[in-house]
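Work package 3, deliverable 3.1, input record:
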Amino acid sequence: MKKYEEIALDLQKKINKKEFTMKLPTEDQLIHTYQVSRNTIRNAINSLVKIGIVYPIQGSGMFIRPPKKENAICLNGTRGITVDSPSKEISTQVLELKIINADEKLSQSFHCDIGTPIYYIERLRFRDNQPFAIEYTYYNKDIIPYIGREIAEKSIYRYIKEDLKLTFGFSDKYLKVIKLNERDSSLLQLENGDPGLEIEDHVYLNNGQIFNISHIRYNYKLGYFYVSSI
Amino acid sequence: MKKYEEIALDLQKKINKKEFTMKLPTEDQLIHTYQVSRNTIRNAINSLVKIGIVYPIQGSGMFIRPPKKENAICLNGTRGITVDSPSKEISTQVLELKIINADEKLSQSFHCDIGTPIYYIERLRFRDNQPFAIEYTYYNKDIIPYIGREIAEKSIYRYIKEDLKLTFGFSDKYLKVIKLNERDSSLLQLENGDPGLEIEDHVYLNNGQIFNISHIRYNYKLGYFYVSSI
DNA sequence: TAGTGGTCTAGACCACTTT
DNA sequence: AAGTGGTCTAGACCACTAG
């Protein structure tokens, strides 16, 4: 692991253990503690600023931000639901898993040729046994060569990162409120016509390839979301 | 203005004018063009990465991301609606503007004493003459000493930045889907019980002071939102 | 192998806050 | 005046991509 990553992780641990009150140590102190250059310290701190856990005040210090509200799903970052709800039990029911060929619309979205094989997956996701969200997901099979039910029932993202050793780059998320159709509302155990939040997510690898497009419709009674901005 | 800010602005202009295709020039080329150090170039590029308009591929270059969908309101950043809809006409009707004293709940949210004077403002906002969102907003009067109707009818954010010369730092946004009450739905020209997206926004200055808390309820037919993640 | 971005070091001076 | 983060320079070596 890189020096600045290790330092960032270590600082994060110490923040969680409340070893610092209010502020981080000064840059000079951290330089001395970790025996690295100032640039490396600033790089480490910067990654904490990015994820919204500290903020800088010039001339005064790096201040620790109050912890976020529980159970709010963080929309910054390209992680799945699982990591956002550590205290909740997430389970998944796979409704559909098949390989289709990209039509014109999909081929445009994926920047691929028409006919490219694409995994199409529908999953119903539960949080503490309550139906939480329904996912309609596409994966480019040229990039993710295999997804089986045994994987889709767990975490597809974990599989892609840890088993396929691919690295996520960035994502674009588009949000809107919709009225659920009959099927979705019944799956989410809601009334027909009840609202839902639909998030359309375009996820890219760190080489700029788009590998995943998903439409997720959240149960409006359970979905609570968080965005940290700078 | 700082060197890296000027370079970032210049690059952004050139991207918009399509002077670059696919990639930015290499760091070495930019060092030569702008006659600054590599660190300054990287700092400039970094600010473009942050706002999601380029992405890096190590060993290959800095690639330009495709433009975002039109009319999507960007939730990254602490800007108002106005800047997100340059081609749309935004107008505002002030429904309420008064000074109240912080009760216990408000004093906790604002980290201020009970009784601190707080501006309370209700505004109905229109986009191209369609009722677009209703805002319930609080401003700490100790930080924003004056807000009049003439300001609230325009852009309060512009006033704070340009007239008061305050600098925004960061914000926390919490999102959920609600069913609108009778008053809100009628103001937004929707049916009673129709859904809305509620965004609770906590906005901080660059010195870490929280000066604004708002609850904005968007017309579900018009609200379309965007989050760029890394 | 050459090109390009990523990490790291060492040091100078500036801007802002605190005492 | 002292402390602390922000900007900027100069240079070295590493990691990854592409021809």
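Chain A touches chain B at residues 50, 52, 55, 57, 63, 68-69, 72, 75-78, 169-179, 195-197, 204, 206-208, 218, 220, 223-230 (CB under 8 Å).
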